[in-house]
Amino acid sequence: MANSLTQLIQSNKARLLDLWIQKQLTSDSLRDDLMSNDELRAQSEELVNALARSLTEENIDQVDSIQFDEVFEILSGISVYRAQQGFSPRETGLYIFSLKDAILDLIRQEITDPARLFEESVRINRLLDSLGVVTFETFIKGREEVILRQTEEISDISTPVIQIWEGILALPIIGTLDSSRTQVVMENLLQRIVDTGSNIAILDISGVPAVDSLVAQHLIKTVSATRLMGAECIISGIRPEIAQTVVHLGIDLSNIITKASLASALKHAFAMSRMAVKRIDVDKKAL
Amino acid sequence: MVITLSKDRMSISREQDLVPFRNRVKEAAVKIGMGIVNQTKLITAASELVRNMFRYAGGGEVLIEVVSKGRESGVRLTFTDKGPGIADLSLAMQDGYSTGKSLGLGLPGAKRLVNEFDLKSTVGQGTTVTILKWKNG
């Protein structure tokens, strides 16, 4: 073959890039709000260059050959970047498939023999399809990283230990108490007991949707650990339906001080530390 | 005669599936207008059983059905797994018995929380638990 497919792409790199950019700029999926056109051009140029460099007549039919590693790397980078920028999977998918259109346009202009044109189109299709698959895989991976980071952030922010009075800590628990969460809660609480020298901790479970036997077991363990540190633990925020459920389940919480609201738990804590909140009678004459 | 009004299937394979599963059960309970106490009882029982399924069988499938009998409606849940099965059913239904260092209240507790409870298990083949909670039960 006088002018092979790879040579064709390599020698017409600039034209291919122009064709591709043209296609992207006119496409509906162009998101100039998320990425500037200069940036898009730089990204596309990098990919076309890498593709032209790695492509040889031998490896065009073997997409898993190591010569394509560079292309895959750049492509992965682009997908992950797009995932984090907030591009939709459709837009990212169309990005790579528009390159296919551009290459097909190019070879249509250059190759006149229909049989050969078909042959080369099939090869290009196969190659670009597998590049498309890589894009999706890494795009999803990029999204998953975002989710993972958020999960970590949620478990970090959702277990605040607040000192509400001298010697009294409060820990509002919101959401489900699973094993890993309990571990974080317990660690934070025990550490704060040491740091603040508190002797009473209030665990508020108003925000826990359901208390099943595992959650109850975790609560009992947390209370036992707190007691070992010489502090007393009060569980507050037991709603009527939770109380009934716990009784039916047969969980024994009678060894633990429990209160319906955080306010009554605080009152109990004041009584335990022999403190009283008093309303001060203001002498009207003095005003 | 119990008639099934709607069916919803969900497979449980990871611990992260437990929260969406509870939400699905809650949706079904809210749909038929179940009160908050019965809702909580049903969700807690479901939570116990799905946790058992996840812990001892590594996952399985739950069928969530809205059923009706005469003028009463309710939610029926069927938990099916292909785990090791339960060797002694009466022992497993005893308060405080556990092979896995838990409180041992899951199965007997779940039975007390719902109106109908059925447990079938074959060692080596798996376990099926069916529970039913009536709206005003």
TrEMBL record, chain A:
<dbReference type="Pfam" id="PF14361">
    <property type="entry name" value="RsbRD_N"/>
</dbReference>
<protein>
    <submittedName>
        <fullName>RsbT co-antagonist protein RsbR</fullName>
    </submittedName>
</protein>
<dbReference type="InterPro" id="IPR036513">
    <property type="entry name" value="STAS_dom_sf"/>
</dbReference>
<dbReference type="InterPro" id="IPR002645">
    <property type="entry name" value="STAS_dom"/>
</dbReference>
<feature type="domain" description="STAS">
    <location>
        <begin position="158"/>
        <end position="269"/>
    </location>
</feature>
<keyword id="KW-0597">Phosphoprotein</keyword>
<dbReference type="Pfam" id="PF01740">
    <property type="entry name" value="STAS"/>
</dbReference>
<dbReference type="InterPro" id="IPR025751">
    <property type="entry name" value="RsbRD_N_dom"/>
</dbReference>
<dbReference type="InterPro" id="IPR051932">
    <property type="entry name" value="Bact_StressResp_Reg"/>
</dbReference>
Automatic annotation (TrEMBL), chain B:
<feature type="domain" description="Histidine kinase/HSP90-like ATPase">
    <location>
        <begin position="37"/>
        <end position="137"/>
    </location>
</feature>
<keyword id="KW-0808">Transferase</keyword>
<dbReference type="GO" id="GO:0016301">
    <property type="term" value="F:kinase activity"/>
</dbReference>
<protein>
    <submittedName>
        <fullName>Serine/threonine-protein kinase RsbT</fullName>
    </submittedName>
</protein>
<dbReference type="InterPro" id="IPR036890">
    <property type="entry name" value="HATPase_C_sf"/>
</dbReference>
<dbReference type="Pfam" id="PF02518">
    <property type="entry name" value="HATPase_c"/>
</dbReference>
<dbReference type="InterPro" id="IPR003594">
    <property type="entry name" value="HATPase_dom"/>
</dbReference>
<keyword id="KW-0418">Kinase</keyword>
